[in-house]
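Notes from the 1:1 (GR / supervisor)

We went over the backlog. Supervisor wanted to see one worked example end to end before approving the batch request, so GR pasted a single chain during the call. The sequence is below; no edits were made to it. Supervisor asked that the structure be written out right there so they could see what the output format looks like.
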Amino acid sequence: MLQEDGGASIAAATALYTTVIERLPGVWRFLYSSWNRLPGMEWFRTSWMPRRFRETERRLRRLDPATVLTTHPLATAIAARMKSRASLSPRLVAALWDWHVQPFWCSPQVDHYLVSAPWQREGLAGMGIDPSRVTVSGLLVGPEFRAPLAAAEARARLKLPPDRPVVLVLGGGRGWGLERLVRAVARLQTPVCAVVLCASAERRARVERMLEGNRIGAAAIRLLAFEPNPAPYYHAADLVVSKPSGLSLAQAFACGKPVLAVSPEPGHEEANLAELAREGAVLVPRANEDLAGTIERLLDDLATRDHAAAQARKITALDTEAIVLEALGRSSASHPAALV
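Structure output shown during the call:
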């Protein structure tokens, strides 16, 4: 709904965001951590920004839902503004699909919050939100990630070698930091099979050009463009190397796989990394250890990998679907629920 309504505005905002985090990461870190202390930012968040989405407002009014579930701060701001102006009166449930808490995502008009991890409930309580209005639901991932699938079977399906470690490398939807990760894999002296999900054919071509003449290690590297069902690759992996995004990590955790979390995007992913590393749910390089050395060390240390995967499972071993449905409650046929 938002993507269709926003069109060029969302594309322009995405391009601006990408430019800033790549070229001026310090500026973005400051804005991300200090927005609520900057003059005019609250008005921008609660008024100017949501007013750009008139068609979304019209659709919500026509639908007249009993419950609205939002999964993005912009969607939350739109529904909250409509509630404050009495043009919509649903129960508003906001899902925080990340691993930390950011006040930008919250609103007095939100009736209930769904969060990924227990410490987020504590963070919201510190902001004055009653813990009874917060449910730890975990992140919703497809059943194919939670379904048991032995690594050997997954490798056979994907025609991956059964006799060497498999490393899955991810850079998210934009391929953030992917070149750095692939360069490290290309230097590995341990014979591994590395599968790289590049997110697009264009990014795959760029990474392939970068690798020409630079395959100096013992890794066999398989570059994939867009993979509609990455679950078997997670199940096949001994180690997942990824930036600390919300969904990619939730998928790895659901598969019971250890994650080496590196190359966070400034702001929200740096905050994700701090929280997850504190809980021991992800692995990180040691001080002054290069990335290739970290991967080599972890591939040789099953106990450390297993411990990280177990810590992650403590956070994510939830029946998320049932918890979310219970938190949403039942809507009548005449007043359905809406996902924004």
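Supervisor's comment: The first strand starts at residue 67 and ends at 70.
Batch request approved.
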